Amino acid sequence: MMAHSMDDRDSPDKGFDSGKYVRYTPEQVEALERVYAECPKPSSLRRQQLIRECPILCNIEPRQIKVWFQNRRCREKQRKESARLQTVNRKLSAMNKLLMEENDRLQKQVSHLVYENGFMKHRIHTASGTTTDNSCESVVVSGQQRQQQNPTHQHPQRDANNPAGLLSIAEETLAEFLCKATGTAVDWVQMIGMKPGPDSIGIVAVSRNCSGIAARACGLVSLEPMKVAEILKDRPSWFRDCRCIETLSVIPTGNGGTIELVNTQIYAPTTLAAARDFWTLRYSTSLEDGSYVVCERSLTPATGGPNGPLSSSFVRAKMLPSGFLIRPCDGGGSIIHIVDHVDLDVSSVPEVLRPLYESSKILAQKMTVAALRHVRQIAQETSGEVQYSGGRQPAVLRTFSQRLCRGFNDAVNGFADDGWSPMSSDGGEDITIMINSSSAKFAGSQYNSSFLPSFGSGVLCAKASMLLQNVPPLVLIRFLREHRAEWADYGVDAYSAASLRATPFAVPCVRTGGFPSNQVILPLAQTLEHEEFLEVVRLGGHAYSPEDMGLSRDMYLLQLCSGVDENVVGGCAQLVFAPIDESFADDAPLLPSGFRVIPLDQKTNPNDHQSANRTRDLASSLDGSTKPDSETNSRLVLTIAFQFTFDNHSRDNVATMARQYVRNVVGSIQRVALAITPRPGSMQLPTSPEALTLVRWITRSYSIHTGSELFGADSEACGGDILLKQLWNHSDAILCCSLKTNASPVFTFANQAGLDMLETTLVALQDIMLDKTLDDSGRKSLCSEFAKIMQQGYANLPAGICVSSMGRPVSYEQATVWKVVDDNESNHCLAFILVNWSFV
């Protein structure tokens, strides 16, 4: 059966007119669709071949075939765009519904606060004239009101074999959870930077003035409710600090729900705090409106219920009614409400670490937001919207990330039931050494059966924690990731990589300078919000001498970098890596090491004094004698853990090497902290006579050479203090460097913007050389204009790129260089002003 033209009677011998519509038969359409499925845009040769090979298309001109494929691609594009717009419309509709519900909740909260405020005013007005502090009384009254709204029910001890008693606890837990998820049982405050929208993570809020710490998140996902519940109940898959979940009892309820008695173990984030565990009742059920809910709370003597197992390695924490509510959306997908409310028993934590356990923001990032992100990630992978490189499935890449985090957490915590035991110290308490020779450990979830034969007799871990003040955590993690050669020893890396081969190297001596090597980062995968990167790092080395030839081969690391999103508030950042071989199999053994940075929410005390040390070991703060710094803007805890393999005859040598290596890494980090963090007072406006004189020379020289004023027409009449303030607070970077013919120029002064651009301080500025800051183009431009600068006094340089002290590229739109002369008209230095600079 042939294709027919709408009008072919006048020219039977002429064939089809390419400008007229062609009606294709079903057989012809089927043949063209088969080709389209293989190649949506066939070439001219392919279309001619199609006509030759398919007899039913022989009377159709190639041009008509081309037009058919063009129309087919256009219809496909329109179909995809229509589907995309429908999806966006559903998201906007669901988000609008969510925002309206959130608005109703906030209005109820406002009404409650207005009522409470009026009640307190009435009490204050009618109070008798006593010496009682009314503000304290109002707080007590407010607390009594909240206690009346959310009473704590006291129950007799309930037996685990009594389903009716457990169902009563479950129903109470459900009611309290729903009040937190959709009501006003908790005073929620939206987290900064978490704005709702169709493509955002959702609505995220933290608690204010409640028992323990709490976080709440609402979001949209394109998965059905039961699939979402299945994902969220598997807590170890998305909560990286969850060691294990053990369900000890499962009891079906008469309403179709399920009650579970669950023991959950949580890793400690640092080496100097104990891990936590929860003994909880988890209740899963469907609601009348079709929603599905999973709620959970701790079983205590106050709530009733059976007693759970205890472990000496864990501190029993308390989970207040928490869980997740999953509601189906019109047109598919789900709306998720997640609430996490816990009391982590801060009384058992050293004073310096308590902000880690008292921060609702940290809880939100590590648990609540992490759960929502994980569900959204799987939803995107299921729909095929996420593309990965390397030909690996998303589930495989997620497993790599989980194994890296789990292995690092195991090393940081060193549980005895995993086979870890402490090793005797060398007299210093800054580094902790632990060893693990348990074969059961290596047969666990993160190691395969080949781990023990390849890795010798056991694993040794050297770990430490330190407190850093005023150090930007993201800058620190980026430096550790991008400048490995500044802190790592290539010989130690080679020893770690040798554990993957049958003939490992001898234990190396730690060298201060390490081995010269170059680093190439090859991305594997990243999450939707780009807060986590999985990558392969290739380390190419070069030997110093013939005896080092064994170390000059390329090495590979599987690396996970997380928490580097600048918009995240209260989140921790970490860099975890493990050596791999060239084959990089899906079940490759991993021995992770790395760094974890957790910012602390500083609570200042006006009576505290400022510590003299910029960095200090946390162990020195455990006795409580060291108080928090009153003038410190921010603090963070840095945890370091490195794992190495050993044989029985080399254990002591490996321990010595590991201890010295970690100490060297700590020293490198302290130097980095000094470079990127101001010393006390160093970032303040300098007011010395030398600074006033230098500023006067800078502004006067600029005026003489360029014929214009640096700070405007009235700057010449200003006094030295005003000129200094204008230069110091100028938005463009102003820098001075030495002018010597027998030495490389180094920076001698910079204003606040210049110090921010170079990521350094006035003290460390003098260690930065000019030629190391400019790129090749900038150095060539400066050299070509240098004679002009010395003769005419100044020159304008084009836009370019320079590099900060941390290795970050900085762009600027224009640069002006002028010669600074002193009162005797002698050359003093060169001054630069970089206009509109920004980090690339």
UniProtKB/TrEMBL annotation:
A single Gene Ontology CC term: nucleus
Domain Homeobox: 15-79
Record's subcellular location: Nucleus
Comp. bias intervals (Polar residues): 602-613
InterPro entries: HD, HD-Zip_III, Homeodomain-like_sf, MEKHLA, START-like_dom_sf, START_lipid-bd_dom
UniProt biased composition (Basic and acidic residues): 1-17
Ranges of the DNA-binding region feature: 17-80
SMART domains per record: HOX, START
UniProt-listed GO biological process terms: cell differentiation; meristem initiation
Sequence segments annotated as region (Disordered): 1-20, 140-162, 601-631
Positions with biased composition (Low complexity): 144-154
Name this polypeptide is given: Homeobox-leucine zipper protein ATHB-9
